[in-house]
Specification:
By secondary structure, the protein is α/β, with parallel strands linked by helices. 32% of the residues lie in helices and 26% in strands. It contains nine helices and 13 strands. The chain has helices spanning 12-20, 52-65, 78-87, 131-139, 165-175, 191-199, 229-233, 252-262, 264-273, and strands at 6-8, 28-32, 35-39, 41-47, 69-76, 92-95, 107-120, 128-129, 156-160, 186-188, 204-209, 221-222, 240-247. Strand 2 (28-32) and strand 3 (35-39) form a beta hairpin. The longest helix is centred in the first third of the chain and has 14 residues, at 52-65. The radius of gyration is 20 Å and the shape is elongated. Mean pLDDT is 88; it is low at 1-18 and 20-29.
Length: 278
């Protein structure tokens, strides 16, 4: 029997109340890492909206393999995932950025890698930006596309919300610790909404997970390097980050799920849209 994946996009303040109402299931027998084992119960994952689509795919495959396990997926952002893992309101916190020095008491497991792609509206014909140009656009020093070889039009900056792992990684890797996104930027709370905002404005620029890129947007190279799985893995594309699962005291079934994610079967799912671990 295949269970339907519960997908819940919520803030961290709602994670505990929603997860508390879920019930566990009877035991079933399957294989993890080549060993026969009995698995039952529930796994609650909360955090990064960038990691969320991947978690949903992994959870679906795991529940097919173990029909008496239920995996619930919640959003809320990377900071919400860190807090949920620390406070025990989720079994796994999901983050699309490295942990900060003060985010302690939890164990981080890298499950995948991802690039952050800069996106334009398809009407924008610019093919490449330097990292300095990209930074200056997002902090408001460059405000017209003609300054970087485009049309004479005001640039519309689209960014993610505070607490987003994609925002945190972009700020760190592109803007640097002493710079902030221009105050006039339009703020969106998911990769999908960033993409929609850029698609609807010919003069917009934004950034999304490489795994969320499709042919509806124009993706320029940065410093002459195209964002791709290959360039993220070889280090030539500089705007990249890890996908993390965060745990505090994982149960047997939670550990089995993470083992599955890191297995060849799990990494094959990762590699469909994201970057599998070497």
């Amino acid at each position: 029997m295949k269970k339907k994946l519960a997908v819940i996009t919520i803030g961290v303040l709602l994670v505990a109340s929603i997860f508390a109402g879920c019930a566990s299931s009877p035991a079933t027998t399957g294989e993890v890492a080549g060993e026969t084992t009995t698995l039952s119960g529930e796994i609650n994952v909360a955090g990064s909206t960038s990691v969320q689509p991947l978690s949903e795919e992994l959870a679906s495959a795991f529940m097919e393999k173990y029909p008496d396990v239920v995996v619930n997926i919640a959003g809320g952002g990377s900071s919400a995932g860190v807090k949920a893992a620390q406070e025990g309101t989720a079994d796994i916190g999901a983050s699309s950025r490295e942990l900060k020095a003060e985010e302690t008491g939890i164990t981080a497991t890298v499950i995948a890698k991802d690039g952050i792609a800069v996106i334009f509206n398809p009407a924008n014909g610019i093919k490449d930006l330097t990292m300095d140009q990209l930074k200056n656009i997002f902090i408001g020093k460059i405000t017209n596309w003609k300054e970087v070889g485009g049309n004479d039009a005001t640039i519309s900056v689209v960014s993610r919300e505070d607490g987003s792992g994609t925002r945190g990684a972009f700020d760190e890797l592109v803007l640097g610790k002493d710079a902030t996104v221009v105050a006039s930027a339009t703020i969106q709370n998911s990769a999908g909404s960033v993409k929609s905002a850029v698609m609807s404005d010919a003069n917009a620029i934004g950034y999304i997970s490489l795994g969320a890129v499709d042919d509806t947007v124009n993706v320029p190279s940065i410093d002459g390097v195209v964002a791709s799985k290959e360039t993220v893995l070889d280090g030539t594309y500089k705007i990249s980050r890890p996908f993390l699962y965060l745990t505090k005291a994982p149960s047997e079934v939670t550990t089995a799920f993470i083992d599955f994610v890191l297995s060849p079967d799990g990494q094959a799912i990762v590699g469909q849209d994201y970057i599998a671990l070497p």
